[in-house]
Amino acid sequence: MKSDSTANPFLLCTLAFSVICGILAIAFVPPIVTYDGPSHFFRAAQISHGKFRSTRYSDTVLGGDVSGSDSQFVHVLWNSYWNDHRFLSVSEWTRVANNSRLSQKTVCEEFTNTAVYSPFNYIPQSCGMFVSRLFTKSALWEHRAACGANLFCYLVLVLMIFRIMPHFRASYLLIATSPLILIQAATENIDGINFAIPMLIFALIWNLRRNPRNDAHRALLVIQWLAFFVALLKPNDVVCLGLLCFVPSACFGSNLRKLQWIGATITLSTLIWIAWNSRYFNVNIAGWFDPKHPPIEQQKMWLTNHPMDFIRALYSFVRNDFIFQWGQFYGGVGGWISLRLLAFLWGLSRVFFFLLLLMPLSEGVVDRRWAAVSVAQAIVLMLAISITLWIAYGVGDVGHIPYFGGRYLFLVYTFLLVSWSNVISARVPNARNWLLSLGLATNAAGIGAIILSTAIRTKG
User: Fold this and answer.
1) Residue 141 DSSP class
2) pTM over 0.90
3) Which of the chain's ends, N or C, has fewer CB atoms near its CB within 10 Å?
């Protein structure tokens, strides 16, 4: 993929901005404060000690042994955050970590909602923790090393996707460095990796469709291994493997070879997916925070017997909440920021959305077949996510899809925007430079506001 004169400076500026903001986020965002922070920390720590499978204690409780220092560090901070409503200062985090080092015992912890995830979700974080322990026993530095490794791997994947995509590159780079996803990537959270790996497959296949060739063996091998990798990410991501059907036949030499390759790849990926996830099919994940939640088998039976109720709930979400969730997708980083800052981020999200809608005016490229593929993939993925959330967290005729927030819609929104970019044909002079600059400035304002407000609150 040839680089254009605008993309290279924009890429360098965006990556530099992302690295600086990511480092500042690691330094000043309160440890384990983001979505499911303690659970991700414990799961990454467990894997870093060589324990790849979590321990199952009951149908509602999964977890395992973690070091006493990690356990004490997390519980002291969590108690301060949500019971005392104090996020402490950097010096206080250090003091908590130093005090936690005195605890040498092993502690059994519950982290059911992340215990079901395979270790492939946590490769960067667990490697960072392992390396950190070679130099210090501080749980704070263990956390920072995990976050730094996660951020680094995420940005490497973003760079690869940017280089491979035939177009939509600038729009993707803006989405990939928007406030929520960048903050998530600078923690132990797995959202960044789960967003980037399927997008890498998407970009590779899209590039092959734009430039089909019969010497694409290396690209096909990469796609195949990424498909196996996707089978070990979040369970919903496996539906993205339907994209394999759209690899052009010219890359194989014949339709028969293409069918054989697709069949072998999807079959093996499915077997890998089943091998990891089968023992968790009946885990009542919601039971760890809601003991009254009905068993998972009861939820599956209810869904089977009342499909129209589910469809009505999904339709209601699409009609009433889907667009509204864009604000959560852009800057809904959690309850640890002020309502005033959250309102500011929601305002920026509207500006950002408008800029992305205008971005095709600077592309002048149309591929309506790929637009249809992108829409279809977004629909299938959204259906898979909504079914999973309904079964895992719903309660009978609850009437809505529980917890269906913006952070679950990274790929869905991106696929829809790719589709939009492939149905508009225009090239407005100088639009590209203005749109890229405004998009980067919008992200900088959002992430800067988050980091500045937390830095002021946690200084010391």
Assistant:
1) H
2) yes
3) C
Cβ atoms within 10 Å of 293's Cβ, excluding its own: 19
Give the CA count within 13 Å in the CB-facing half-sphere of 52.
8
Output DSSP code: residue 9: H
CA–CA dist 128, 115 (Å, integer): 19
